[in-house]
Amino acid sequence: MDLTYTEEEQDFRARLREWLAAALPTLPPRPDPLDWPARRAYDTAWQRRLYDAGYAGLHWPADAGGRGATPTQHLIFLEETELAGAPYVGANFVGLLHAGPTIAAEGTPEQRARWLPPILSGDEVWCQGFSEPDAGSDLASLRTRAVRDGDTYIVTGSKIWTSHAEVADWCELLVRTEPVSAAVPRHRGITWLAMPMNAPGVTVRPLRTLTGTAEFAEMFLDEVRVPVANRVGDENDGWRVTMVTLFFERGTAFVGEVVACRRTLRALAAAARANGRWDDQELRRTLGRLNAEFTALWRLTQWNVSAAQRTGGAQGVPGNGGSVFKLRYSHARQELYDAAARVLGPGSLDLSHDWTPDRLSSLSYTIAAGTSQIQWNIVAERILGLPKGR
Amino acid sequence: MDFRLTGDQRALQAGVRALLEGRFGRERLRAAVGKPGPGPNPPLDRALWRELGDAGFFALRLPAKDGGVGLGLPEAVLAFEEAGRALLPGPLVATHLAAGTLPGAATGESVVTWVDGELVEWLDAADCVLGPGNAAGAVPVRSVDPLTPLHRVPAGADGARAAPAPGAACRSEAAVAALLTAAEQLGSAARTTEAAVQYAGEREQFGRSIGAFQAVKQLCAQMLVRTEVTRSAVYGAAVTGDPVEIAGAKLLADDAAVRNARDCLQVHGGMGFTWEADVHLHLKRAWVRAERWPTAGEAADVLAGALL
Ligand SMILES: Cc1cc2nc3c(=O)[nH]c(=O)nc-3n(C[C@H](O)[C@H](O)[C@H](O)COP(=O)(O)OP(=O)(O)OC[C@H]3O[C@@H](n4cnc5c(N)ncnc54)[C@H](O)[C@@H]3O)c2cc1C
To answer: Which of A11, B2, B63, B230 has its CA 20 to 30 A from that of B275?
Structure first.
């Protein structure tokens, strides 16, 4: 067990720090959270900067346009960018963390050449069209239909909770190409398509979240024509194609956030000290316990990354171990912002304090990317080997 | 960075597990526990103590030139994790800490205990008492844990727990003791997770194994999450040796051991409430270890202080 970094890794960290110190002061001011086009422009401009500096797709394999960096270098990148206060992936999330890795793993050479470079350079933004009004946790019950017509699919149906759909160029879409029947189980008959968001028949209607901003949208698809060439993987094999990378969302996706939470925790302690609530032993100990919690989550991240490094998993932290992390982290994050509310006291009802909207958005963590209940099922069935159930 | 067990560490882990299964397997454990009821405190098994000494359990961190094994804190943590799994009785942490300073501790010829607060474990069996407290006048307690005799230091005596004494050496000793206790708690938490999962797979009700019920699955999954988060915390603290990180590891490990034992008990139903099932032994020992410094409140104070 070794937590020290090699000379090469330290060198990488030092160069990155230097670059960040020069790059960050030149950033434009953060955009209004209600202005999605401005947010897209801000997020993609930052991605472009990373791309030009050679930091985009750091851990992607070289033949996918990446740098083939080790999982540890990727961890250092995520840690340092957060410590320096760099922008979060934002609108680039789906492209960089899900659709991109899926195409890199399962796409043809032509598909990789078409879609991966603009993801890395920030030129194109992706969204994820998986969930439907009647298919959430039970994703495999999705009903959006694609019917083959020569060299195109005609897609009809609706999607929901599609994050940043308003500003996306592409949607990684799961569709049903074969109806469920006695012969076709639910997980078969699903196909993965790259759908251009400007195709005729695509209607996006933003949905306001409880934070007041429109983070996600409904999508109505009315006979949208998607070329068969946009299919990644075989017809009816989309479930497997998706699962290859779905778990990345639960692996290193939260590294930067854990770093940020540790900083927030110190800020909470300082604020409590300043406003006198530090004298409340119960609150103080809650902050102490959260210190243990986030330190452990950081160590768990290093543990998972080391495992990925050993197995040569260039893509980050795959597998069900991410579920263990996600379960604990999502709850810890909610506890952190509940503690923030106690530090703020009545001020916790004032939206102009950052911690208040952050507390609101923390509520989504036990739902998005697989609810806690579903994660518990995954841990119980796939790690502990308990019998499957519905 | 390679925060995983090395081949040597895995071999050590397997070796200690095999040793304890051979020397202190379930039958020995149950024989040591005996029947409930009043009676003399269980004696410490001196032969087993010397076997542990021979195996290097106490001398693990002593330099080879002093007759030790020459390993570090991470290795000691792995050994103590196994001890926690096996419910190995005795003042293991104190004797391990005394190796190299107290004659006979390294070899298991001496039994050493520790006093830093109200409770003293294994006082009658001990040849020597270390620690910042004072065990004079301690009176026996009817210990909840059948395999950990306890004495209580009278209130107001100078054994009352102080924050670890100012001397740096003493503080670092207390921190190592806390870390090794956390490692024992980790082993217990992992063991009760396994026991619960195994029982959930075997026991049938309503025509299916109870492990198919989501409520049972959720208990088991939460046990695993607690165990694995604790493992990262304990191993991380072992590598850095940082006292604040150690306090965090102890806090999480106490919580995991106690809550996992309770969930394990729940999964076992009526069987879990019996003397015959081992789960109560894990719970009771976890309670005893949770009382060692730092308790949850004391650890949280250390961790909070470090935020400023
Ligand atoms: C902020 C945010 C962003 C999102 N972004 C996207 C996106 O970009 N693209 C996309 O496709 N989706 C997205 N989602 C959707 C998300 O994946 C779903 O909300 C999630 O999978 C849950 O589905 P649901 O909302 O239909 O809830 P349901 O599945 O209806 O669940 C309702 C409740 O029932 C419980 N439940 C359901 N099934 C079981 C079971 N088998 N066992 C136990 N309990 C069960 C759930 O845990 C939950 O508590 C996003 C969601 C949020 C909150």
So the answer is: B230
Decide: A161 in ligand 1 pocket, CB within 6 A.
yes
B236 and A306 within 8 Å at the Cβ level: the answer is no
Q: Which domains does chain B have, with CATH numbers?
A: 7-152 (1.10.540.10), 168-307 (1.20.140.10)
**Same domain for A255 and A205:** no
Residue A182's CB: how many other CB atoms inside 10 A?
5
Which CATH number is A215's domain given? 2.40.110.10
Q: B204 forms bridges with which residues in the sheet? A: B209
User: With contact defined as beta carbons under 8 Å apart, do A110 and A55 qualify?
Assistant: no
Q: Could you tell me the residue range of the domain that residue A377 belongs to?
A: 249-383
Side-chain-facing half-sphere of B227: CA atoms under 13 Å: 26
Count of the separate structural domains present in chain A: 3
ipTM above 0.90, yes or no: yes
Is residue A132 in a domain? yes
Instruction: For a ligand 1 pocket test, name from A96, A137, A363 the mutation site with the most ligand atoms within 8 angstroms of its C-beta.
Output: A137
> Token digits for A366?
């036990």
The end-to-end CA distance of chain A, in Å, is 39
**A380/B218 touch (CB, cutoff 8 Å), yes or no:** yes
Specify whether A291 is located in the same domain as A190: no
Distance from CA of A329 to the nearest CA of B (A): 10
pTM assigned to the model: 0.95
Q: Which residues of A touch B221 (CB under 8 A)?
A: 327, 375-377, 379-380, 384
Q: How far apart are CA B210 and CA B159, in angstroms?
A: 48
User: Is the Cβ–Cβ distance between B95 and B109 less than 8 Å?
Assistant: no
